[in-house]
Amino acid sequence: MRKRIKRLIQFFLIVVFAVCLVNFVAKKIDIAETEAESARIRDRIREQELRNGELEDILSDENIDDFYRNLAEDNLGYGTADEKIYQDISGY
Questions:
Q1: Residues 39-65 pLDDT 10s
Q2: Structural domain contains residue 51
Q3: 8-44 as b/e, with b when 16 or more CB fall inside 10 Å?
């Protein structure tokens, strides 16, 4: 009877240890995934801050005319009055 109780306690302790070990490994995996995601987000923030800095430079008072000219030329296809624009229609 005493051996049976001792074995039952040992089995219970082994089960508790196994559960704790599985939970520990799962938490370590969650932490690693969260750290990787955090690093990706920090990289995206740095990239966005660089883009914001570039846009702030473009939108400064001395560059505002250049900004609108580039916007009109690149995105809308406009040019100045004395400018000839050639378009490649060869398909290459």
A1: 999 999 999 999 998 888 777 767 777
A2: yes
A3: eeeeeeeeeeeeeeeeeeeeeeeeeeeeeeeeeeeee
DSSP 8-state code for residue 89: -
Question: Whose structure tokens read 């000219």?
Answer: 69
Name the residue type at position 71: L
> For residue 17, what are the domain limits?
2-74
Count of domains observed in the chain: 1
- Tell me, yes or no, whether 92 lies in a domain: no
Cα separation, 6 vs 3, whole angstroms: 5
Q: Residue 89: inside a domain, yes or no?
A: no
What's the pTM value of the predicted model, to 2 decimals?
Answer: 0.50
